[in-house]
């Protein structure tokens, strides 16, 4: 499958990896929009939140546990925003489920 994030999982494309376990990978975003901007993904290819089901839903819980672990580390502020874009009109450009973790500056609301 021609998926950029699957290629990052398989290490065919390099990325600055912050955390990895059996099912979750966390790496820095290539084009950060905040001083802290990393992405948490499932290693398994799930296209977007519409494809979460009873078989893979535990992976989403694992992602959030990992985010919590990472953000409790000293170098990452405990105030941050988690963003998931589902579908092109919502801003999804990579069709492999991912959660943006943004921090290190004031974040306005509502988003654009
Ligand atoms: P989306 O727009 O789908 O919500 O977010 C995709 C994100 O992936 C963007 O913030 C973009 O900068 C990031 N991205 C796209 N290609 C790569 C890549 O090859 N490496 C890394 N580290 N990030 C990428
Ligand atoms: Zn993928």
Q: Can you give a write-up of this model?
A:
By secondary structure, the chain is an alpha+beta fold. It has a single domain, classed as HIT-like (HIT family, subunit A, 2-Layer Sandwich), CATH 3.30.428.10. It is built from two helices and five strands. The protein is globular and about 35 Å long. Residues 3, 5-6, 45, 96 line the site of zinc ion.
Give a topology summary.
Layout: H1 4-9, E1 17-20, E2 24-28, E3 36-42, H2 57-71, E4 80-83, E5 98-103
The structure holds guanosine-5'-monophosphate (5GP) and zinc ion.
Shape: globular
Overall CATH class: Alpha Beta
The average pLDDT value, as a whole number, equals: 95
* Rg over C-alpha atoms, rounded to the nearest angstrom: 14 Å
- Runs in which pLDDT lies below 50 for 5 or more consecutive residues are none
What's the CATH topology label? HIT family, subunit A
Give the class from helix and strand content and strand pairing. alpha+beta
Side by side, the strands of the main sheet go 1-2-3-5-4
Helical percent range?
A: 10-25%
Number of strands: 5
Task: Specify the number of helices.
Answer: 2
Question: Which features would summarize this protein structure in a list?
Answer:
112 residues; HIT family, subunit A; 5-stranded antiparallel sheet; 23% strand; binds zinc ion
Quick summary:
By secondary structure, the chain is of the alpha+beta class. Helices cover about 20% and strands about 25% of the residues. About 20% of the residues are buried.
